[in-house]
Design the sequence.
């Protein structure tokens, strides 16, 4: 099958670009120095390729991702890099207790420490706020939370600090800001004990010198928004679409908001000019090639990889024009 013969809209991964991205990252963060974040691709088939490349430990953002990775035999060392309570914590504990995976939970409060212990989770990282106003405790509270976790019978592997506010920073202070975030996280480690410092991502892969393991995910597939900030990695994910209406000044593709993550802006139409996107359509101005006939295949490059992938059931893997594999997006949902 050739790529333009796929039913559209179809997510397409360029295997050579993907492999190059994986190799570039592995040269700086080899083996378990990298803890790839599966949230960016939600596919055990893709994760298995990273595992085969030596990256055997993974980050997950949802319990569903942990469950799916464990069921696929990719549970050597799974970190839920996110806080959970209630039924979600219980499900995470069930994976840990089943022995299907080594499970570590991020915790940042009494409630999440207690929920982890009650669920039978035995290992945690203390999640520390290093500048992103999201999860992560006050660094001054990290030692106390670690003591509480140990009192409840859990092992504290170390700390997590995700400097997400700096992934897309480009200014002259980026290096210093990443270092300052690292100083906060490292100081917290001195209070918590343990030897893991988990943090970083695609946007700080070449600046973060304080994480013992980098949590990058987007680098595998990339998108038009991220590639400006981390140009070492190439956009490997595109959406194959078809012209379904052709007018003198514009064309319409059969791919809209329900096939494209749009929170980072408009996608890029290869050979055209994206005007706007609606539920099931993308309207674009003709490029240099001029007006295209109804039925013409057109490639679109997404602006945000994570939500784009999550809209699809599978990725079609291509080498050149030939479809050589299919990777189910089997870790969707929560
Ligand atoms: C906790 C955490 N770690 C790491 C990442 C890094 O991901 P990326 O490589 O996409 O920047 C993310 C992305 O949002 C995240 O939420």
Sequence:
């Amino acid at each position: 099958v050739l790529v333009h013969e796929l039913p559209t809209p179809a997510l397409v991964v360029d295997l050579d670009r993907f492999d190059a991205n994986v190799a570039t990252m592995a040269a700086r963060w080899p083996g378990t120095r990298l803890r790839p974040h599966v949230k960016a691709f939600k596919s055990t088939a893709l994760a298995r390729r990273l595992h085969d490349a030596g990256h055997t430990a993974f980050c997950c953002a949802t319990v569903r991702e942990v469950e799916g990775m464990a069921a696929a035999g990719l549970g050597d060392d799974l970190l839920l890099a996110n806080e959970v309570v209630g039924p979600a914590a219980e499900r995470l504990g069930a994976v840990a207790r089943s022995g299907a995976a080594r499970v570590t939970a991020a915790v940042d409060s009494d409630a999440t420490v207690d929920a982890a212990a009650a669920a039978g989770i035995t290992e945690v990282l203390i999640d520390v706020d290093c500048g992103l106003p999201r999860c992560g405790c006050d660094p001054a509270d990290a030692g106390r939370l670690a003591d509480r976790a140990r009192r409840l019978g859990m092992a504290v592997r170390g700390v997590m600090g995700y400097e997400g506010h700096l992934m897309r920073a480009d200014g002259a202070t980026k290096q210093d800001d990443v270092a300052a975030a690292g100083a906060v996280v490292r100081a917290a480690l001195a209070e918590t004990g343990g030897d893991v410092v988990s943090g970083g991502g695609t946007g700080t892969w070449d600046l973060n010198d304080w994480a013992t393991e980098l949590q990058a995910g987007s680098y595998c597939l990339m998108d038009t928004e991220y590639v400006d900030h981390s140009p070492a990695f190439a956009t490997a994910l595109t959406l194959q679409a078809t012209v379904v209406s052709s007018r003198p000044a514009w064309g319409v593709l059969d791919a809209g908001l329900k096939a494209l993550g749009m929170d980072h802006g408009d996608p890029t139409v290869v050979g055209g000019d994206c005007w706007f996107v609606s539920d099931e359509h993308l309207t674009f101005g003709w490029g240099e090639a001029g007006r295209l006939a109804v039925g013409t295949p057109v490639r679109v490059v997404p602006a945000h990889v994570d939500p784009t992938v999550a809209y699809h059931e599978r990725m079609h893997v291509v080498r050149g024009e030939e479809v050589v594999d299919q990777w189910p997006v089997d870790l969707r949902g929560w």
